[in-house]
Amino acid sequence: MRKPSIVTITLVAVLLATAGSVLAQSRPLRVFILAGQSNMEGHARVETFDYLGDDPATTPLLKRMRGADGQPAVCERVWISYLTGGAESNGEGFGKLTAGYGSRHKPDEDGGKIGPEFTFGLTVEEQLKQPVLIIKTAWGGKSLHTDFRSPSAGPYVLSEWQKQNYPKQEGHGIPKDFEKWKADKIKETGVYYRLMIEHVKRVLADPKRVCPAYDPAAGYEIAGFVWLQGWNDMVDGHTYPDHGKPDRFELYSQLLAHFIRDVRRDLAAPKMPFVIGVMGVGGARAGSDVVAFRSAMTAPALLPEFQGNVTAVPTAPFWSEELGAIDEKRGQVRQMSYYLDSKHKDYANADGLMTPEQKREHLKKFEADLISPAEVALWKRGASNAGYHYLGCAKTFALMGQAFAEANLAMLKDQ
């Protein structure tokens, strides 16, 4: 048999390399959609990044979050389009993914914060050797029962408690004008669901506007959806009455199942992997209602129709227990401030004779006795917001984003 010449071997090698390059370039754009309310916006300030370095387990993640210059890393193959603002002031920020795509006062300006999108993008970039586009839509203070209510869930339905109490117009959160409330509810229902779907379709009508690496010949694939929401439903005692009952939030489970089916239908992605970020506020010490809500959020992932294509990811393990303990003490300080102003009979200033300066000094001493200097320094290093925003802790949001990406990629691999 005649041996191949050097020229032949070289030519074959060049052809294989060229073919491999063409195949790599022609892989479809992977599109991931992230949606929800304020915690999907993300309230962890960049200044809290260093807190990850205090824990050997998260030090490697911190290194991925920073570039060689010490500044937040900028993804090379991941782009983001972020719709946020208000119903009348929505705007878009877009570009290569980096820190700053968390909560924003102005949609098109770096907000100095991260949500789960940052490490989500870092994780998928590391594992997917192709262009990636994240489309994020998030607004603070939005419910699933009204704002994000999807079409197949139908109109908002009054709970039995509301039917009995709202017509009485007795105050305590009950609307004064019941008829106007009902009319407003109809207008508000589903508004943010529609804004979300419209924005995703708008971006995908021209992906190259946001993602310059998009190849029209290769197209795109909607590769996953992450849902991080829940606070406004969890604290709504009128829509979800029956405090203390295990099935109190069963309606939320039903609404979320409708939501999953509807986004898949409206985006023509019937088996799109769907990740549910399960409420983790309060961590291991959360109250019974929070625990019940977590179960309700998890429930859709257990339905037979969603096996293997919907995953519920608990976020409670990512809550910082040490920062949470400090936040409880800070809550006691706020409570003491209230007692001083209200002239509570069991506390100083019961007679109301303390001057503003005396109240400030009393509160200052109370806080100093309660919270040590080391705790003050730790809080400043790791926290930047309130408990309902996971304390604005970058470590928490970074771990969430990474876990969401890993769950999403695992479903993709199985498919």
What does this structure look like?
With 415 residues, this protein is an alpha/beta fold. It has two domains: 29-156 and 183-319 and 397-414, SGNH hydrolase (Rossmann fold, 3-Layer(aba) Sandwich); 321-382, no CATH class. The chain has 14 helices and nine strands. Strands 4-3-6-1-7-8-9 form a seven-stranded mixed sheet, with helices on both faces. The radius of gyration is 25 Å and the shape is globular.
Shape by Cα distribution: globular
Helix content: 40-55%
Q: In percent, how much strand structure appears in the residues?
A: 5-15%
State the order of secondary-structure elements, H for helix, E for strand: HEHEHEEEHEHHHEHHEHEHHHH
Strand runs, count: 9
Mean pLDDT metric: 93
| CATH homologous superfamily heading of the largest domain | SGNH hydrolase
- For the record, the count of structural domains works out to 2
CATH topology of the largest domain: Rossmann fold
Structure annotation, total helices = 14
Largest sheet: 7 strands, mixed
For the termini, the CA-CA separation is: 45 Å
Protein structure class? alpha/beta
Q: Looking across the biggest beta sheet, what order are the strands in?
A: 4-3-6-1-7-8-9
**What is the CATH class designation of the largest domain?**
Alpha Beta
